[in-house]
Every structure is written in C-alpha cells, then in structure tokens.
Design a protein that fits this description.
CATH superfamily of the largest domain: Cytidine Deaminase, domain 2
Largest sheet: 5 strands, mixed
Shape: elongated
Number of strands: 5
CATH architecture of the largest domain: 3-Layer(aba) Sandwich
Strand content: 15-25%
CATH topology of the largest domain: Cytidine Deaminase, domain 2
Helix content: 40-55%
Number of helices: 9
Strand order of the largest sheet: 2-1-3-4-5
CATH class of the largest domain: Alpha Beta
Radius of gyration: 22 Å
Distance between the termini: 58 Å
C-alpha cells in the first residue's frame, strides 16, 4: 500500500503536523527522512525493516558506503542520514564540552561521543597549558595502533608548535572494551619517557570504550 493510500492520521507527515514528532515511532521518523520507498515496499515498511534488521543506533553509525548497500538507499539518502547523524553527535558533544581537565573522567567526557562508535582506532593527543586548560586536540593516526606508526616525533611536534606544557594520550577501542593491550602499555611507557626528556609531560593516557574508559593514572 502506498503512503498516500493510508488514512491521513497514519501518514507520518500528517501525524507529525497534528500531534508532534514525539508521537511518531522510530520507523515513522525515519520514513520522513527517507521520503520514498521502493517499488516493493512503501517507505514506512522499508524503514521498519531497516530498524528491525540493524537497530536505530547502529544504523546511524554506518559509513556512506555501508548505507548505500541497503536496498532503497542511494547516495543522496545516505548523505542525508550521515548529515543528521553528525549533527546529533555534535549536539551531544556540545552538551558535554570540557574546557579544563581535572580528571580522567573529563577526558572521557570530552572524547566519548566522538569515539564511542568508531570502527577503527583513532589516536589523539590533548594539549594542555600549565593550568590544565585545553589548548587543542589533534588526531595523530587512524587504524591499528602500532608502535612503528606512533612515532614520538609525530606526537610531540604539535605540542611544541602549540606551546603545550603537557599532553594526554587518547585512543579508542572499537571492541568497546577499554582494557589496554601490551602494545598500548608499551607505547604509553615510551612516550612518557620521551616527554620527560624534552620537557613536555605525558600526564595521562586514556582509552575510550563503549560506555567506560581506562586511565593510566587510575589503574
């Protein structure tokens, strides 16, 4: 059945206009975003099948390529979905914005929304001044964390450039488990020693998991 053939009060747009978005199901909200279905199913049926198969939160974490592999979603729809997901992510980041680091929990709050659903490891440094105010953050690498890739030169160059007196190492574990690997511990130890030699302290290393974190200073 086509959307226009449904009773008016069952059509997502009419329902939103008359009752407000809070009265729509996840499938109905997604249907408004997608706008059209396929010849085999209307947009509500398509949305319902997508959510049942992938889940609403997982679906919005797909890449552009992954979204386009779903039947009925072309590049334009995939770009719309990614844009909505990114806006929501940035809104959540602003709600938990941190300007001064007082604990490893502050570091977690600063990065959690950005890293919690990443499918690859992202390695950042957080640069601080003498009062632990954030100067800047910079992504150093993306992909498997490897000591041969994470060279001290790449870590401390931006810290020197931005006159940072101390830094915090941050990366995520796509598995959701923040427990450090032997490689993580080795990298932390090496960078801490280098920092002491050049006068830029590595005051913590924080691993971001799905809903929790590991901290070098709290372990």
């Amino acid at each position: 059945m086509k959307i226009k053939d449904l009773p008016k009060d069952s059509q997502p747009r009419e329902k939103l206009i008359n009752k407000g978005p809070e009265h729509l199901t996840n499938s109905e909200l997604l249907a408004i975003i997608l706008r059209t279905g396929t010849p085999q199913e209307n947009v509500i049926e398509m949305s319902n099948n997508i959510i049942n198969k992938y889940g609403i939160s997982n679906f919005f974490n797909f890449s552009l390529k992954e979204l386009q592999e779903i039947k009925g979603i072309g590049q334009a729809k995939a770009m719309q979905l990614l844009s909505i997901s990114e806006i929501a992510k940035r809104i959540n980041q602003e709600k938990t914005i941190v300007k001064k680091i007082t604990s490893s929990k502050d570091v977690f709050n600063h990065f959690h929304e950005k890293l919690k659903n990443k499918q690859e490891e992202h390695f950042y440094i957080l640069m601080l001044n003498t009062k632990n105010n954030i100067i800047k953050e910079e992504q150093i690498s993306k992909g498997i964390l490897d000591a041969s890739i994470i060279h001290p030169r790449e870590i401390f160059r931006p810290a020197i450039k931005n006159s940072s007196s101390k830094i915090i190492l941050v990366h995520n574990h796509p598995s959701g488990d923040p427990t450090p690997s032997e490689e993580d511990l080795s990298i932390n130890k090496t960078l801490k020693e280098v920092g002491e030699q050049i006068g830029i302290k590595v005051i913590d290393s924080v691993i971001i998991g799905k809903d929790k974190f590991w901290s070098w200073i709290d372990c």
